[in-house]
Amino acid sequence: MKSRNIVRLFFSTLLIGAASTLITSFFVKADAYKEFLQPFDLFEVFGLVVFFAALGFVFSLISQMGFFAYLTINQFGLGMFKGFWTPIQVVLILFTLFDLVYFRFINATESDPSLVIYILVALTIFVYSWIVAGIKAKETNRTAFVPALFFMVVVTSIEWVPGLRTSGGDYAWLMIVPLLLCNTYQLLILHRLTEKPAIAPKK
């Protein structure tokens, strides 16, 4: 990949992280905005916008580190496990989905959501990841499906761990949206940035 494409990927992902976090904050942290809307306090509202945009930059950086770590791990897995790497990824996907439900539920407190919510969250992430992996496979080749699904489910869940460990669910919801969007963008844009342009035939 050319250096200019790396720079383009970096900054465009940063913008996606900031924009998605900011928009999500309007819903997840609506109370924080309402506090300064009546009466309207421009300085405080601007401060919130800057804070959530900056938080989005952080989430984007986490996403980008996870993405490049995944590219390394995928190459390592292909070299070490060869034909077994695909079934290993499938097992890790299933374990991650199980972990998102069971281990979160057994460690939950009385104020945490019910088991149904955990199941719905894991199912939503899986369905969304399946759709993204399908698009990736369609635009590249069929063998890209499982690695793409692995990245969207397993790597995103690992990146989400800091949000899951916070007290209350606000920052968990605030974090998962930009992570999914940034990871989706990086996954689907990568082959466009790395494919070689066709050479025009000589006349």
From TrEMBL:
List, alphabetically, the InterPro entries matched.
KinB-signalling_activ
Q: Which key words are in the record?
A: Membrane, Transmembrane, Transmembrane helix
Bilayer-spanning residue ranges = 46-71, 83-103, 115-133, 145-165, 171-193
* SMART domains linked to this entry: KbaA
Give GO BP annotations, semicolon-separated: positive regulation of sporulation resulting in formation of a cellular spore
Task: Tell me what this protein is called.
Answer: KinB-signaling pathway activation protein
